[in-house]
Amino acid sequence: xxxxxxxxxxxxxxxxxxFADYCEGAVIVDRDARIVWMNDSYPxxxxxxxxxxxxxxxxxxxxxxxxMRQVVHSGQAIMLDIMEYGDRAFVVTRLPLRDAGGEVxxxxxFMLYDDPSRLAxxxxxxxxxxxxxxxxxxxxxxxxxxxxxxxxxxxxxAASSALKQAARxxxxxxxxxxxxxxxxxxxxxxxxxxxxxxxxxEAPFVAVNIAAVPETLLEAEFFGVAxxxxxxxxxxxxxxxxxxxxxxxxxxxxxxxxxxxxxxxLLRTLQEGEYEPVGSNRLATVDLRVIxxxxxxxxxxxxxxxxxxxxxxxxxxxxxRTPPLRERLEDFALLADYLVDQICRLRSMPPRGISTxxxxxxxxxxxxxxxxxxxxxxxxxxLMSDSETLEADDIAAVIQPASxxxxxxxxxxxxxxAEVVARAEREAIRSALHQCRGNKAxxxxxxxxxxxxxxxxxxxxxxxxxxx
Length: 468
Ligand SMILES: Nc1ncnc2c1ncn2[C@@H]1O[C@H](COP(=O)(O)OP(=O)(O)OP(=O)(O)O)[C@@H](O)[C@H]1O
Fold this sequence. Notes:
Layout: H1 3-22, E1 25-30, E2 35-38, H2 41-46, H3 59-62, H4 68-74, E3 78-85, E4 88-98, E5 104-113, H5 120-144, H6 158-171, E6 177-181, H7 187-197, E7 205-209, H8 215-223, H9 241-244, E8 249-253, H10 260-272, E9 274-275, E10 284-285, E11 289-294, H11 298-304, H12 309-315, E12 318-322, H13 332-346, E13 353-354, H14 356-364, H15 370-384, E14 389-390, H16 392-399, H17 403-407, H18 417-435, H19 440-447, H20 451-460
Parallel strand pairs: 6-11, 6-12, 7-8, 8-11, 13-14
Antiparallel strand pairs: 1-2, 1-5, 3-4, 4-5, 9-10
Helix pairs in contact: 6-7, 13-15, 14-16, 15-16, 18-19, 19-20
């Protein structure tokens, strides 16, 4: 035997005993991660009694957070780690043990310090990162928490009461829900309320407006992007909405606008609980509740072949229909009161009221934009009138189609081309939305622009709060 082989053998023979003496604790497990030896100080540091019963036990029964099994399985050492045990933390190292043939037959673990403060600078950084992470998680959870509950869905008439009752029943299950109704009838509000009242209320509520995302980006938006799939900003990968909503609820708004290719992928994910992030060949699993909504006639789309029947049946386990305002005139007084209060609060205005004649005037209007449009009319009336109680005339002043007058420039004051174009676009979009009863996909088709472009213009031209 050469001198170097002698030294190596000497080193390995003496290393364990020396290490076990100098460090705070040592433990050896076999290839099944069962404890075969533990020095006296280890149980002392953990505050447990060393008894012969420890020997032969799976390591996790004695040290629940132990990673020794992972070391045995992977054959990879974990050179420096912090092991949490109850409310204490230890600095540890773990090494695989191999036989002469190189096969892993067990692992040895050392507790280097029982007082991580000896690694003060490292620990300070670790603690800072931990608290940053906890704060980021808290903020994320807050951002994903729903804003609305059933109490926010205002309406006491027969149609609203029946709808709320059915939605409460839906909240007691985790079955998929399909919400059908015109724009601005409270579909998203109801979806949030169902989530908030259900068993998953602590988990995220994630909404995707399918019509608002350009077709080419939707797949990545849903399934996420694997690291390295693209160069540039997305190089590190990106989580998709499925991952973000895992454990909670995914709200698919404007589901009727989904392309056939994506419908097939969504169906597969819902059936199998699995999906492939873009650029990955690994399946990821997901467990979530789906609530879908649309203002389109899905049943007709199925009959015409533009929406998959199998996906329709998968989504349409519980159906809820949000009635348009013109079918719930009995809710107007309550709703108008509620919205006036809400607007005054949000705009920091003194509390104001609304008269019965003003409510009657509201009831006579056709409401293509439903509650969203009603809210906008009330907001404008409150801003334009000084009266403590809104009267019919205050409503009439903002409800009259003032658009044509507004489109005309004042005499002698030429408008910039951009303003003329913006006004014309605003007018065309308003009129298309009105004719299509707020159906944005249909309005986009009639205007000859994409849905995404329509959404962009609606918010860019400030139409959102006006009509749609
Ligand atoms: N019953 C209601 N009570 C109180 N507020 C409501 C009610 N219905 C709708 N709203 C309000 O009207 C606005 C539009 O509601 P929401 O976004 O839920 O409608 P939607 O049907 O999802 O619309 P879209 O189809 O355009 O996405 C929101 O500000 C919401 O709070």
